[in-house]
Specification:
Elements: H1 2-12, E1 19-22, H2 29-39, E2 47-51, H3 57-65, E3 66-67, E4 80-81, H4 83-86, E5 91-95, H5 102-114, E6 116-117, E7 126-127, E8 131-136, H6 140-145, H7 151-157, E9 160-163, H8 172-185, H9 198-206, H10 212-226, H11 234-237, H12 257-275, H13 280-287, H14 291-301, E10 305-307, E11 310-312, H15 314-322
Parallel strand pairs: 1-8, 1-9, 2-5, 5-8
Antiparallel strand pairs: 3-4, 6-7, 10-11
């Protein structure tokens, strides 16, 4: 996360370069965008966030670009500036950018390239001063390959890419975040709640956190509201109620936490290699790690590469790549 913070600070110094923040639901993409905004040159300017999946195409277009009088049924009499204009010289976050229709993708591409926009029903060009940050929990590269997302827009958005790792990849952060949330939320109790029991800390460490930081905060909040003891217990967290899409519990026993984490990492590495067609450089980029780090993981998980139909052991493959 220190590397993520440094990346955000570098992006903040890059002027109006567009930034694409990638990460699973609940990892804190909007928080990262706010950090980027506050680290930039105009932290006192507006920060405007819009969820691209929350409105239909017509309403979203009017919200983003604004509209002139009579542009559509229900349009305000005097027209209305859009969110791009409302952001001024600040930042606009386009969350869930992968849900934009192809029609709106084309219009957004034009705005990014020309740094101007036109209100719905209008003819005058309005200059765009805001920094544009996009966020997604989708694999946009895959959406590009299937034609669901424009390739030219993807490259225009990803001038600077920031990947927020899921909580299962940084388990050392779980306890620190839990204590931080308890410090924030514990004062809601009278008397304030300030402690975790040992079994609660073990449960926090063992849980896979499919909902990431948002799930962790909600678990602490729930325990503060409904716990009855002087310290939060494992039962107060109610982690056993977190279910995956098949309805089965995702919380493994504490003794299996390390094994589960290793298997998850191995699956991610294999998936990235498959999506990259066996190209280690592209797979490392998808995973947000250096190529040498990926070779280390290949050796650690004993994953062999397939080059031109021939199985190549990871160590030998690394030597080939270096040559």
């Amino acid at each position: 996360m220190m590397a993520v913070r440094e990346r955000l600070q570098q992006a903040a110094r890059a002027g109006n370069a567009t930034v694409l923040i990638e990460g699973e639901t609940g990892v804190g993409k909007e928080l990262a965008a706010r950090c980027l905004h506050e680290s930039g040159g105009s932290p006192t300017e507006p920060f405007v966030a819009v969820n691209c999946a929350s409105l239909n195409e017509t309403l979203l277009e009017a919200e983003l670009f604004g509209h002139e009088r009579g542009a559509f049924t229900g349009a305000l009499v005097g027209g209305k500036p859009g969110l791009f204009e409302a952001a001024g010289s600040g930042t606009i976050l386009l969350d869930e950018i992968g849900e934009l229709s192809l029609s709106l993708q084309a219009k957004l591409l034009r705005v990014l390239e020309e740094r101007t926009l036109r209100r719905v029903g209008g003819h005058e060009s309005v200059p765009l001063a805001a920094r544009i940050v996009a966020a997604t929990n989708r694999a946009l590269g895959r959406a590009v390959a299937t034609g669901e997302f424009r390739r030219d827009l993807y490259y225009r958005l990803a001038v600077v890419t920031v990947r927020i790792p899921p909580l299962r990849e940084r388990r050392e952060d779980v306890a620190m975040l839990a204590w931080w949330f308890l410090e924030q939320l514990g004062s809601q109790r009278v008397p304030p709640l300030r402690e975790f029991s040992d079994d609660a800390l073990e449960a926090l460490a063992a849980h896979p956190w499919p909902g990431n930081v948002r799930e962790l905060r909600n678990a602490i909040h729930r325990a503060v509201l409904f716990g009855r003891g002087e310290a939060i217990r494992a039962s107060d967290l109610e982690l056993e109620s977190a279910l995956d899409s098949t309805g089965s519990s995702m919380a493994p026993p504490a003794r299996d936490a390390n094994r589960t984490l290793r298997s998850v990492e191995a699956e991610q590495v294999r998936a990235a290699l498959g999506n990259a067609g066996g190209n280690v450089t592209r797979a490392a980029a998808m995973l947000g790690i250096h190529r040498s780090t990926l070779y280390q993981k290949l050796r650690h998980h004993r994953i062999e590469l397939v080059r031109r139909g021939v199985v190549v052991p990871a160590r030998e493959s690394q030597e080939m790549g270096e040559r």
